[in-house]
Amino acid sequence: MQILEVCYKSGVKVVTIYAFSIENFKRPLHEVNALMEIAKIKLSQLCQHGELMDQYGASLRILGHRSLLRQDVLEAIEQATEMTRHNDKAILNVCFPYTSRDEITTAIRDIVSSSTIPQTSPPSPSPSDSSTSTSTSTSSGKTATPGLMDIESITEKTVTRHMFTSGCPPLDLLVRTSGVERLSDFMMWQCHQDTDIVFSDSLWPQFDIWKFLPILINWGVKRRKLEKEKGDVEVRGVGMGMGVGKGGGY
Amino acid sequence: MQILEVCYKSGVKVVTIYAFSIENFKRPLHEVNALMEIAKIKLSQLCQHGELMDQYGASLRILGHRSLLRQDVLEAIEQATEMTRHNDKAILNVCFPYTSRDEITTAIRDIVSSSTIPQTSPPSPSPSDSSTSTSTSTSSGKTATPGLMDIESITEKTVTRHMFTSGCPPLDLLVRTSGVERLSDFMMWQCHQDTDIVFSDSLWPQFDIWKFLPILINWGVKRRKLEKEKGDVEVRGVGMGMGVGKGGGY
Question: Which stretches does the entry tag as region Disordered (chains A, B) (predicted)?
Fold first, then answer.
């Protein structure tokens, strides 16, 4: 909460936290269940700190493959997001359950799906007229028949628009805790040309405001040096690869 | 060349070098032309060192958006790849001209394209029969009409198969030179759960075997510690974010 506060006070618009990886579902069931209980507690704590979210106008968003979650966890998510929905100045993204590859794969499925032209009663084309195009859709719901799609119209912007972080500003700073020097399938697409990556030796519960402040200040100094001719510099997005409690994240 | 040699001697199967970013085309024309000349020189040097490539059974692959290259550069590429085509024990990937986002976007286009069912004389379906599906293709070549596609069949494996690095082993170690702590749009998809990322302060021409060896050895020690119960450890893929000469890369 202190880290969030210093971020929003410094003008950071979006903070993204890696709470639970899809990979974690491979753990023993009792561990997964324990992590889900922790998630519910964290979400209810967030509700209790509603005034902090309101103070900075921050809304909560849960990014990830929600269909993998239990009904009671989904309800806790619904309650927490509903409570902050009116805030529109800043965003707290919580990746849960998430992997970057799943996000990109989901985006690809969405792009293919969105090209579908649903036609309940397709016209009967003349075989000699090759300039017309028809498509029909099956009733399974899982199989789509995409209609006319211009391949060239799929650009990097299309992909960005289909990410869970759609509409968020670029990621400026990515902090990876736990002493391992890996991205661990976190915000790979968002890690663009100018994203600074910082590895911290601290495990998440020990990664406190005093560990975070030097990273944020150092980023500001470096960026200011790089972009001094451009004038003002502000951190727009911060991503943190941090787990929920001891067992979370990765 | 020394770095390549130590990699192949240590059993690394694939080395990937970031030679030229698509972003570099935004530079002034005379700079781009100079970089292209350097690329041609490097490719011809590689041909002269053919015996090294043969010694380790390494074949050259150029990954990237080739249609952006000049005809004479394409010919130099063709000559160099042809010379090592018979080698099948190791791979030297040179990303040129490349960005990771372009690679992923290209993969998405390929996935959409590969779902196209070309039909020169499409059957005339009955409007009442919703279980059949037809598609026709236009003559422009740019617009495709994908046929029946099962969205659920698009998985992370599909995406991996459509990357330029398709068929390569997982990326174990990524070395980023030049003292900046960014991925700079290099192998974002390949940077999987277990890829170690190492930032080096050295600029590329100064990044020599004595800078590289400690990184490789350190990786081995760390990985052995992590996976000691699994037995033998070997580096399968190494990616290096290094530019061609002073102006290259990023």
Answer: 114-150
